[in-house]
Design goal:
Distance between the termini: 27 Å
Low-confidence stretches: none
Strand content: 15-25%
Mean pLDDT: 95
Number of helices: 17
Structural class: alpha/beta
Largest sheet: 6 strands, parallel
Number of strands: 15
Shape: globular
Radius of gyration: 22 Å
Helix content: 25-40%
Strand order of the largest sheet: 6-5-4-7-8-9
């Protein structure tokens, strides 16, 4: 592509299996383009005169006294830009809460920048602004919400008795325990007065249109755009997570007390039947996966999407992909080389020691895979977080091949120790296998690619 998402492309292609590395990065660029939310909005939403069409639905804007545009998330910048361009002066007011570094200039929509993955004061401010806008809505108003993955941290409005600092501690404990996003969000939603459908409850009976980008396996709506759809989780689900991962003693007493006492009287909204709520997934979780597949086929690789639902521990998933690489190289199955195996999903890293380094699940996936394919020729494996930030790092992920581990050992580095200490970023940078994109403007499932070249 003329404009690559990858900022350090030359560093990634000047060593190892250069031809396969170049192809892998080309595939990544096309995958991220396929998951562009700005493109998604323009594909789903059209304005002709006063008629606004969203998918198969049509709305006459003359029927509404006011139009509000709200949103939050790591993939919401492109949604905000598209809505600002399409609706223009028709927007009465609006506000989007975006991640620091995700700068954008909008003419008709306010922007608040906040912290991710741990909320900060601006997360509290942004949530308060959105709730204030919602509380003033009537049935004569139209509200378009662009909420995507990442909004759980960017919108922080804790329940009474739980402070923002308490919420930060809860988030930190959840992110390090190895729980998946469904488990994490079942707890978050029950400590919030904006998530879990509470924002929608304030907006309705105004007409509410959700435009969202999925970053969860299976595109479960209440785990993507949680503030503006009914919640499917219960207090019991949140309590089970704290039991399973032994978190009761690791979270603040205020949060533990609220979750222990929670029940039907303060349960999250479960239904908005009969109210004008319409939700559209404009970019599904497997969008990058499909984009990668299409480009791999164009480049001449026998290709398959192995799964778009890869979950579990990152290191174990990396071992699995490496096993497939060896199966292809030795036995020509499930595909004959040259071939591309493509996957997507959400891996986790379980932290059991407070003394940890810097890394993320995609880096652990790639580094573990590199250990298993060490010295194997014409094989590359990469893994990226499609939003451009793997865990708390500035790396999107990593691209490795059979020469990665020999390169690390040659520099006096210890890959196994790096994995044990969850300190992968430094090693990956030193061998030149780090993928740097900066903010991509999207946020769908993590993407995994295995390329096997001809012998």
């Amino acid at each position: 592509m003329e404009n690559s998402y990858i900022k350090n492309r030359s560093n990634l292609t000047n060593h190892g299996d250069k031809e396969l590395r170049t192809a892998a990065l080309d595939i990544i660029d096309h995958a991220l383009q396929a998951a562009d939310p700005h493109v998604g909005v323009n594909r789903w939403l059209q304005l002709k005169g006063d008629m606004l069409s969203v998918g198969e639905l049509s709305f006459n804007l003359k029927d509404f006294e006011r139009i509000f545009v709200i949103g939050a998330g790591k993939a919401s910048r492109g949604i905000a830009q598209a809505l600002d361009e399409i609706l223009g002066d028709r927007i009465t007011d609006g506000c989007f809460v975006l991640k620091y570094g995700d700068e954008v200039l909008l003419d008709h929509i306010r922007v608040i920048y906040a912290s991710h993955p741990i909320p900060d004061e601006n997360s509290l401010l942004g949530a308060s602004v959105l709730m204030e806008l919602a509380k003033g809505c009537t049935e004569r108003d139209l509200v378009i919400a662009g909420i995507s993955g990442g909004s759980s941290a960017l919108l922080a409005l804790p329940v009474t008795g739980v402070s923002l600092d308490d919420l930060k501690e809860v988030n930190q404990a959840l992110l390090l325990c190895g729980a998946d996003i469904f488990q994490i969000n079942s707890v978050r939603k029950h400590l919030s007065t904006i998530k879990g459908g509470w924002l929608a409850k304030e907006v309705l009976p105004a007409t509410l249109i959700n435009l969202t980008v999925s970053d969860v396996v299976g595109d479960a709506l209440d785990y993507i755009t949680g503030p503006t759809v009914p919640d499917t989780s219960f207090f019991d689900d949140a309590r089970e997570v704290l039991e399973e991962y032994r978190l009761w003693e690791r979270i603040p007493n205020s949060a533990a007390k609220f979750l222990r006492q929670g029940g039907p009287s303060n349960e999250t909204p479960k239904s908005f039947n009969g109210l004008p709520l319409h939700t559209f997934v404009i970019v599904p979780g497997d969008a990058a996966c499909i984009g990668a597949y299409d480009r791999a086929v164009e480049l001449g690789f026998n290709s398959v999407i192995l799964t778009s639902m890869l979950e579990g521990e990152a290191k174990e998933a990396g071992t699995f992909f490496a096993a497939i690489a060896k199966e292809i190289r030795h036995f020509g199955r499930p595909l004959k080389a040259p071939c591309a195996i493509i996957g997507a999903g959400e891996n986790v890293v379980s932290i059991r020691d407070e003394k940890i380094g810097m890394g993320g699940p995609n880096q652990e996936f790639a580094l573990k895979a590199s250990l298993k394919i060490s010295n194997l020729r014409n094989v590359v494996i990469l893994s990226i977080d499609t939003d451009g930030s793997d865990g708390p790092t500035q790396l999107a992920g990593a691209l490795v091949d059979g020469g990665s581990i020999p390169a690390a050992i040659g520099k006096g580095l210890y890959p196994e120790q790096a994995l044990l200490n969850h300190d992968t970023s430094n090693l990956i940078r030193q061998i030149g296998d780090d993928i740097v994109t900066g903010s991509t403007g999207t946020n769908v499932n993590d993407l995994k690619i295995l390329l096997v070249g001809s012998e």
